[in-house]
Design a protein that fits this description.
Number of domains: 2
Order of helices and strands: EEEHHHHEEHHHHH
Shape: globular
Number of helices: 9
Helix content: over 70%
Strand content: 5-15%
Oligomer: single chain
Length: 293
């Protein structure tokens, strides 16, 4: 399309089907993509609901007083790590590379690496300087002793779940169901055992079942907030989308490596957990291709 027509203003809005784009006439660049508000609200609502409900469902064993073996715990966490690894690759990193403006695959890959490092680096800084409590590894961060253990758990929720929610929000912000639906399914799938771990860990630390359930539900709310923040950020500018996808991928890789995989290696069932990770990754690969069809 010829964007250099002299009668057109320097910046103008052009509509293609359901998309509205703001165009720089002189350079022919697509500056902003205006996402239809009704579609954005419905999609974000669905993603936020999945994040909250799936995490809250994890508190069910506390309500029913169900206990799980260490073997089952490690296998389940391995599957979840594999699902998240697959979702990170197929629904965040590869779509980011496809959407970067570059002369070739090497330049696109380099830009994606930059986004990955930004996302992972941000979580590294947050883990180092914000006092928080890993679910089973104890306190970490500056001045941790001065903060009550419950609040350390809540800090951990923010560090862990907010980036997950933002990754889901960035995925829904693409407006592409082949990206959004697999990511939503994968994160929702792993949120259930993740919520269960939060609830059972709090009970094991001596907190009441009511407190454990409320904090678990709060983790879902934090993730839902991340969905809204992530989708809102990328909906304003098309140029932000690949950076948001790749940075979210870096954050997810950091969480998988620093939190999820170590949890599968603690109870002597490393081989079973590794098999679970491979199964989860394969399931996510199949799921992603099913939504592509």
């Amino acid at each position: 399309m010829d964007w250099s027509h002299p009668e057109w203003p320097a910046f103008f809005e052009e509509t293609y089907g359901s998309e509205s784009l703001v165009i720089d006439r002189q350079n022919g660049f697509r500056l902003f993509q205006i996402v239809p508000l009704e579609f954005l609200n419905n999609f974000v609502l669905l993603g936020a609901s999945v994040a909250f409900l799936s995490t809250s469902l994890g508190a069910l064993p506390v309500v029913l007083r169900i206990r799980f073996s260490a073997r089952l715990h490690d296998i389940t966490m391995g599957i979840c790590a594999g699902v998240m690894l697959g979702a990170t690759l197929f629904s965040l990193i590869l779509p980011a590379m496809d959407r970067f403006e570059g002369e070739g695959n090497l330049q696109k890959a380099s830009l994606a690496v930059g986004g990955l490092l930004l996302g992972g680096g941000f979580l590294h800084v947050a883990n180092r300087f914000i006092p928080h409590e890993h679910f089973f590894r104890g306190a970490e961060g500056s001045n941790s002793e001065a903060i009550r253990r419950l609040w350390l758990f809540i800090f951990a929720v923010g560090i862990h779940n907010l980036p997950e929610g933002m990754a889901l929000g960035v995925g829904t912000g693409t407006g592409d169901e082949s990206i959004s639906l697999p990511l939503m399914t994968g994160i929702g799938f792993q949120n259930v055992p993740e919520g269960m771990i939060v609830a059972l860990a709090l009970v094991a630390e001596g907190f009441s079942a009511r407190t454990a359930i409320l904090v678990t539900m709060a983790t879902g709310l934090v993730e839902s907030l991340g969905v809204v923040l992530g989708a809102s950020a990328v909906s304003f500018s098309a140029a932000m989308l690949p950076w948001g996808l790749s940075a979210s991928g870096g954050a997810m890789l950091y969480i998988i490596s620093s939190e999820m995989i170590p949890e599968t290696q603690k109870n002597g069932f490393e081989h079973q957990a590794t098999a679970g990770l491979m199964v989860g990754f394969c399931l996510m690969m199949i799921l992603d291709n099913a939504f592509q069809a």
